[in-house]
Amino acid sequence: MATLQDIITSNLTLTQSQLKADRQLVMEVQTKLANLGFYPGGPWIDGDVGNSSSFSWLGLINFCNAVGGISIPSTSLAIDSGIATKLVGTPQVIAVLDGAKNTTAILDSFKKIQIASPIINGSTPPSAFVSRTINKSPFQSLVDNYPASLEGRPDGNSIAFSNPTIGLDEYPDRGSKPNIDNTALNFLDSVIENACVCIGSFTDSTSKIKAHWFGRKSTKIEQFLSATKFIGVLNTVCQINEKSPNTDIDDCTIESPKKRFNLLVNDMVSMSENISSSNSIASMFKRFTQRPMLEKWISDITGNTVDFTGGFLDSPFIQNPIVKDITTGTTVASFSSSPPSPNGNNAVSAYDLVRLISMLGWHQHLEPTAQLPFAQWKSLESIVRSMGIDTARYVDVALETLGLINVISEPVIISKVGFGPSSMTYVAFVKFVDNSVNPKKIRTFSLTLRCSKSGGASDDFCDTHLAAAVTEIIRRIVKEEFI
Asked: Which of 82, 353, 368, 419 is deepest in the core (most CB within 10 A)?
């Protein structure tokens, strides 16, 4: 069993057959290729180099052609010290990022990945990107560090998004709507019927966050399905910290039966704990306030009229839940006395979801009048970690496709996906330091996308188009091409 460093140190040359026989080495090569934009990554990092038409083998050939000056892999020379040195020492191939401007080619490549996806058919839905999971994400080991990364500001060596063609406004206070540019997302495919993007920036190391908002039918209320589930959780956190500012929800249980608060949120987001269905847990979190009051709470924050009195299909996991702080033994939140109605909608807008998730991610950098009311960061940290393990990895796919994995640091990706008969939806907050430019820059933004299934579009169709849309949005942010 060899490593790329062994091949460099010992000046080895391996044939295709020898490479195929070393699964650990193949996985190392696949990971390097994925990070540089030459391989799908995620579940495809499996140690199988495949045949001469496989993603692994073609990715290796394409990499060698792109960087130049090294051997082109063949059956007799699959990898040598020259190829290994380039794989280890190349942080970025600029041609990958530049080539991603061809959105048709990117969509076509995603279609090929979708068709050949190794995703297990038992996943729901069994599509390549929405069901990718955190398990082989390049960011899996960093999720626990997300809250600390979100606390950081420009350190004097990094500045934020600074395209002079984009005006930056103060982040609005609760109840006030921002100005939204409803033409700047026209580059998105028409199947993305509703969209909102908010790009954030610091003007200096002490300033609060400023923002610019873009949209497509961004304030029109629609069913965003499971993507709305985090709203009830945020509302519950605000209630807990209003009553008990010193409570950290990591120290809380929800009863009865007694379950840790954070594990229930984990299960709602990623179905990773096998406690109950995501729908039943989300329905439970809507039990801590009367539904008309929750609807008003959203509107009071975003300034938009919503219709949010519905459930999430399944009955609440705990019909009459209470939240207890285990450090004090006190009850810090109780169920609403009003029983839930099975009727009603969960209709919000793309803007509402961007507003709420950006308030979560930028909490430390907002004026108190713009923050989630009463919420304490020590409690919100737990929600950040839970939303970091969403099954949908569209941002992972975008960063890999753009070849940016090696040149970013301090990444944060929190999100929630939703899918159903009518649409597939996605809401995300992203932050990273872009080290590919000098001076390096903080890139931070939120987005919400809704792909309609009108005309009989499939899960695979929407999954592929959402991946392509997220990729193009991030490419434009990194290249500062939003106008």
From this structure: 353
